[in-house]
Specification:
75% helix; mainly alpha; 2 strands
Length: 273
């Protein structure tokens, strides 16, 4: 029972911080709301980067951590405020590769190219997707609904797997996940999207909610499995302990890291929001 209350308390704090940063613009104005959400995205991105470096070091790599944290910072800032630099993301990618490779020449490590890869990867895996959250600030209801559908998918996939799960989906990296549970999670996310999504005052049609529900459940599951593969490669159960009873930053945001780019592309190019 004590563990249950600890998990509930930490989940409540997490939800309040996340939702508070998303809806902060209604209290302090759109500009400051955008900045607050960008600050939250930066906090999470740096936390994910810290945990990724911890995993990389357990694999025997030696990423350039100060440089990696710096690239994560710049990616969130450039991604969240594209007006600062024209073509900022592309310029940052090129700059980060040249500088990291150049600095590596003076570092005495046994696997220099692996170290460069591990230094740069969090910028793409963690920072770039999270930098899109402030971009989606003007469609906050869509962002919140996507978070809800991810939560519904995860919860029902767990319950479905516990009740009727028979066939393991990926026993090597995620032994608890089953095909039956995954199917239940997808169905629950689709039902939530079709029934709850239209209640939000947006310009989305029912088929848009269907697409987003499938993205949040299927692509989100891929993000979850990828993070499990990353942890299992070094024998970790959780990526960290920032949230008692729930794990670390990567554990909580693994699905969002995969769905945010897809949601961004769909909203801006398919439905022109």
């Amino acid at each position: 029972m004590k563990t249950f209350w600890i998990r509930t308390a930490s989940a409540t704090v997490y939800a309040l911080l996340f939702l508070g940063s998303i809806y902060s613009g209604r209290l302090v104005g759109d500009m400051w709301g955008h900045i607050i959400l960008a600050a939250f995205a930066l906090f999470v991105a740096e936390g994910c980067t810290f945990e990724y470096f911890r995993i990389a070091e357990k694999q025997g790599s030696h990423p350039n951590k100060p440089l990696g944290y710096f690239w994560t910072l710049l990616m969130v800032v450039v991604g969240a405020f594209p007006g600062l630099v024209n073509g900022g993301v592309l310029a940052l990618v090129m700059l980060s590769m040249v500088v990291t490779l150049g600095v590596q020449l003076w570092r005495k490590t046994e696997q220099p190219f692996a170290d460069v890869l591990h230094t740069l990867l969090p910028m793409f895996y963690c920072a770039l997707p999270l930098s899109l959250m402030p971009y989606l600030h003007n469609m906050m209801n869509v962002l919140v609904m996507c978070i809800i559908m991810v939560w519904v998918n995860d919860s029902f996939a767990y319950m479905g797997g516990s009740l009727i799960g028979r066939h393991k989906m990926w026993p090597r990296h995620s032994p608890g996940k089953t095909w039956e549970g995954t199917a239940v999670g997808v169905a629950a996310a689709v039902a939530t999207g079709l029934l709850v999504g239209p209640l939000f005052q947006t310009s989305l049609q029912w088929y848009d909610w269907l697409v987003l529900a499938l993205v949040c459940s299927i692509i989100g599951t891929l993000g979850d499995l990828t993070e499990s593969m990353l942890k299992r490669s070094v024998g970790l159960k959780d990526s960290g302990n920032i949230m008692p009873g729930h794990g670390g930053f990567l554990d909580r945001f693994d699905s969002l890291l995969f769905i945010l780019p897809v949601v961004f592309v769909y909203c801006f190019y398919a439905i022109n929001m």
